[in-house]
Amino acid sequence: MSRFKRWLFPGLTAVILLILIIVLGVTNTKTSKYLWSVDQRVSNMSDIIQSFNTSLHQAQETAKQVQQLQFTVENNKDRLTSVSEAMKQLALIDTLTKNIAAIKCSLEHIINNSSTTGGCCPVGWTVFESTCYFFSSDSRSWTGSRDWCETQQAHLVILRNDKEWDFVTRNTIPQLYWIGLSDSRTGRWEWVNQTPYRIERRRWIPGQPDSWTGHGLGGDEDCAHLHSDGRLNDHHCSARFRFICQKHSLNI
């Protein structure tokens, strides 16, 4: 009995310590899991804060861009107003220029004792149905002819109808004259204002246009001229012929 008592206290002590160790182990495991959960939450909050800061920075940059756009729009409004005013001034200047040109033209005709019926054309030009025509006496290449006409605020002649064909050919036969017809730009015949041309065989010399290359000038024949009988023929654009310019007449 005395031996039992001697071992009873240490045994109970050991059991109590074991129970305490188990309790502490379980508690420590729960605590560790809780701490891990807290750490994860803190980590998630850090990510959320970082994402928020990034979004805030992007929003600030976007706000700056919007302000810059607003500034640009306001500047463009001012510029558009200036451009609109400038366009009005240019239109006024254009009207005044035309009026001055008409008065000048009228005075020239009075000095030269010539008629302005059908509209006013510069001296040396011929008026027909409110259009001015210039039949040159000198010869140039097709390109040179086109460029000279443009210096006169005109263009190589565009023949639109039978009456115009008849009028022009009455003034060209039996000479050769360049007109504003070419296929050099696209390979298809078109007028100088880039209006497509539909070939009328009755207007051409038989067998033309033939894009002949035997002239030795390089390339084929890309430009049209009025032949001595008033019909069309294609020829190398470097050939030098007389030419016809055309522009609207001025109203007096």
UniProtKB/TrEMBL annotation:
GO terms for molecular function: carbohydrate binding. PROSITE patterns: C_TYPE_LECTIN_1, C_TYPE_LECTIN_2. Signal peptide: none annotated. The chain crosses the membrane at residues 7-26. It comes from the Eukaryota. Keywords: Disulfide bond, Lectin, Membrane, Transmembrane, Transmembrane helix. Residues 128-246 form the C-type lectin domain. The keyword DNA repair does not apply. Pfam families: Lectin_C (PF00059). PANTHER family: MANNOSE, PHOSPHOLIPASE, LECTIN RECEPTOR RELATED (PTHR22803). This is C-type lectin domain family 10 member A-like. The lineage of its organism: Eukaryota, Metazoa, Chordata, Craniata, Vertebrata.
